[in-house]
Design a protein that fits this description.
2 domains, 4-stranded antiparallel beta sheet, 26 strands, about 30% helix
């Protein structure tokens, strides 16, 4: 199994190797392999459900063997009679890893048949199945009864677009392809029907748009038994949020009615109800229990069933009876979702921020360029209304809309802007991809819609512990670190104010945790498009909604002032009531 640190964002210079060979240098540089306790957890879960063949060889595989920790843990858990029939295989592209794993396994199991090879598992599977036709049915290798794995995690932007596209084509995937995606599908092609696999992955695929194809294929090519979202347990030193999948080999797609267990553990500030020696042991606690561990952290443990809304590509969430009842109440009092208001967009991207974005434009010898606009960044973040610093950044925005079409401005009309940009022309022209796309050398890479900035818009950062949404009414340009939402239809600005109130409420924190339950380290939530567009709205014609809109406008107008705390508390209670819930039901 590959190193967990190799699954993270490896340095860009390593990207030149094929497939996942760029991870090898990290191994030789002392990267962290799967901890023994985590390997033992996966092996224990596999052996609890495994049905081993009654006679003949028991074929075991780790397709990215690393130092052999996973294989070692799994073999140790085989019954003694079954262990004698074990035939063990492992692949890795790192010769040092193969050597270390071989030594380890031969020391612990000197009589076993162990075959470790320096081999690219993905290439191997493609060769087994008709070259680059992964779904060709002819097999030239006996399937495996047990597959335990920790595939490499390398994201699309680290691999490079060309390599990612090749992997997507080879393995029948679409969209952005992280490296562990094809590994998961390739395992399905070598696992025996009824065989058992336990795989450590990143949890990103469970909730991201790029993971849609993998979610679909996992339910099609395996019989999933249990999924664990290990959240921010920090089982590895590196910054990945791990997950574990436990499944059988399956010849038929999993039906929507088949139950798949789903568990998670995320750090919380709530008081612990019980203690455990470590985060993995904490997972044995009952549903919705807060468990303390010796280092002072506390985790909220959840157990339920996997729910994807009946959509094979849908986001995965934990469904429990209490959560389902809570969400059903919200649904019954919802008029629409934020998606009804308009499209959520990310902010502008210049790819040359030092040229386009500054807070010292007044100090330039040539004077302020004509095309400056206020820039909205996460550093302005404050609920309801931006907290703009006295020396705020501004962006030189060289785009306009003429006759309904976006285009670059004519520099001849703006002499100070032209002079400034000419001074930085070599830097801007170095962005060869801008020129290759048929754009002017002085354009922003992602300018968004110039005509949209003057209208009111809801702005929010993509990651924060608590929701931070604010209304911009000053025509600011949103930077690429934030998202923004604008009314698609004229005359519906009150929907935006209603959304502002809902998004900043403690209700939406509870909704997020019931509906998505996906957090990063230290309880930070991810306010990304596929989540925020599902936030609910009460009926705007209702008495509650009208009062909420009025309060939201008042808070925005009066910030900063002492009275806004009282108004915000009143608003919070009204949002809960609008969705048919008592304010006292806030649990976290």
């Amino acid at each position: 199994m590959m190193t967990m640190s190799s699954k993270h964002e490896v340095d860009a210079p390593l990207v030149q190797h094929q497939r996942y060979r760029q991870t090898n240098q990290q191994k030789s540089a002392g990267a962290t392999y799967t901890p023994a306790s985590f390997a033992e957890f996966v092996a224990d879960q596999m052996m609890q459900i495994a049905s081993l063949p009654p006679r003949g060889a028991i074929r075991i595989l780790d397709p990215a063997v690393g130092d052999g920790a996973l294989l070692d843990a799994l073999i140790k858990r085989l019954p003694s009679a079954a262990r004698k029939r074990a035939e063990v295989f492992g692949y890795d592209t790192d010769s040092n890893a193969i050597e270390a794993a071989s030594q380890r396994l031969h020391d612990d199991f000197p009589t076993l048949k162990i075959h470790l090879e320096r081999k690219d598992f993905l290439d191997h599977v493609l060769e087994l199945h008709g070259g680059h036709d992964l779904f060709h049915t002819e097999k030239t290798q006996a399937p495996f009864d047990l597959v335990i794995a920790n595939p490499p995690y390398v994201r699309t932007q680290i691999m490079g677009a060309r390599q990612a596209q090749k992997l997507a084509q080879d393995f029948g995937l679409t969209g952005r392809v992280d490296l562990y995606y094809p590994f998961l599908l390739a395992i399905s092609k070598v696992l025996a029907e009824g065989g058992t696999t336990g795989v450590i992955t990143s949890n990103r695929f469970m909730t991201t748009r790029s993971g849609q194809a993998v979610r679909r294929e996992l339910l099609s090519r395996f019989k999933l038994v249990h999924a664990w979202d290990m959240g921010d347990t920090k089982l590895f030193d590196a910054a990945v949020l791990p997950a574990v999948l436990l499944a059988y080999g399956n010849a038929e797609p999993q039906t929507p009615t088949e139950r798949v267990l789903f568990s998670s553990a995320y750090e919380t500030r709530d008081p612990a109800r019980t203690d455990a020696p470590d985060a993995l042991t904490a997972l044995t606690a009952d549903d919705d229990t807060v468990v303390g561990v010796p280092d002072g952290r506390r985790f909220r443990v959840r157990h339920g069933n996997l729910d994807n809304g009946g959509d094979a590509e849908g986001i995965w969430r934990i469904a429990t009876h209490s959560s389902d009842q809570w969400l059903a109440t919200v649904e019954a009092h919802s008029w629409a979702t934020f998606r009804r208001i308009g499209k959520i967009r990310v902010g502008v991207k210049s790819t040359a921020d030092k040229v386009f974005i500054r807070n010292d434009w007044d100090d330039l010898p040539s004077g302020r360029p004509e095309l400056l606009r206020p820039l909205i960044t996460r550093h302005c973040a404050r609920r309801f209304k931006a907290d703009v610093p006295s020396k705020a950044k501004e962006i030189l925005y060289p785009h306009e809309v003429v006759n309904g079409r976006r285009g670059a401005i004519d520099l001849a009309l703006y002499p100070r802007t032209a002079l400034y940009l000419e001074e930085h022309r070599s830097v801007l022209e170095a962005r060869s991809y801008v020129i290759a796309a048929g754009r002017r050398w002085y354009e922003l890479w992602v300018p968004q819609d110039p005509a949209a900035w003057s209208s009111p818009k809801l702005v929010f950062p993509d990651i924060s512990e608590k929701p931070v949404f604010w209304m911009d009414t000053d025509g600011g340009v949103v930077n690429g670190e934030c998202y923004w939402l604008q009314c698609a239809k004229e005359g519906e600005d009150d929907l935006l104010w209603l959304a502002l109130a809902v998004a900043n409420s403690s209700f939406i924190e509870a909704f997020y945790d019931h509906r998505f339950n996906n957090k990063l380290y230290a309880g930070r939530r991810r306010f990304i498009t596929q989540y925020v567009e599902q936030f609910p709205l009460p009926d705007p014609a209702s008495k509650d909604a009208k009062a909420i809109v009025k309060l939201a406008k008042a808070i925005h107008a009066e910030l900063p002032s002492a009275d806004t705390d009282r108004l915000t508390c009143d608003l919070d209670a009204r949002v809960w009531h609008a969705f048919g819930l008592a304010f006292e039901e806030i649990s976290r």
